Amino acid sequence: MSKESKKSEVSSKAPLSRFFMVRTTARQEVNVALMIELNTKGLNANVYSIVVPPGIKSYVILEVPALHVVYKVIKDIKHIKGTVMGSLNTKQMEEMLIPKSPLEGLKPGDCVEIAAGPFRGLKAKVIAVDLAKGEVTLNILEASYRLQVTVPGEYIRGKVPC
After folding, report:
1. Is-above-0.90 flag for pTM?
2. Tens digits of residue pLDDT in 85-139
3. 93, 115: one domain
């Protein structure tokens, strides 16, 4: 058996899958994913996975062997706006699905906005960042006296101008 025939034999056994994005109505991603799942079972289509990415609104990602399968399973679903041209590779999928810490890139002296907790909406200056605990020590800028608080990293919205 030659090398070429071995390669074709291996490639024919392993299913080739590609990732395609489908645009949906905002906040209807889970409903669309469930409807696609029902269509997949009813049509006996080859849909390997359905992903609703946590950080991206209005999109559902389908892992299928070819684009025609996407069109087949999304036909006549109410909240679908269309498909995105092209396909995603696995590296792009990993970037979307692996959560990023809000503490990445923060250093003492940066100004941030507090997004949750009792100090929500206030601007603060970063004093210290503890990556091990996932906490940030802040100095509230809008207080009349020097007020230092330690908050979880999830409470930080991001860098803002001072």
Report:
1. no
2. 999 998 998 888 887 777 888 899 999 999 999 999 999 999 999 988 999 999 9
3. no
Beta-bridge partners for 61: 21, 51
* 155: containing domain: 111-159
Burial 73-83 (b: 16+ CB within 10 A, else e): bbeebebbeee
Domain count, the chain: 2
DSSP symbols for the chain: --HHHHHHHHHHHSPP-EEEEEEE-TT-HHHHHHHHHHHHHHHT----EEE--TT-TTEEEEEESSHHHHHHHHTT-TTEEEE-SS-B-HHHHHHHHSPPPTTTT--TT-EEEE-SSTTTT-EEEEEEEETTTTEEEEEETTSSS-EEEEEEGGGEEEE---
- For the beta sheet containing 147-152, the strands, ordered from the edge strand earlier in sequence to the opposite edge, are 147-152, 135-140, 123-130, 111-114, 156-159
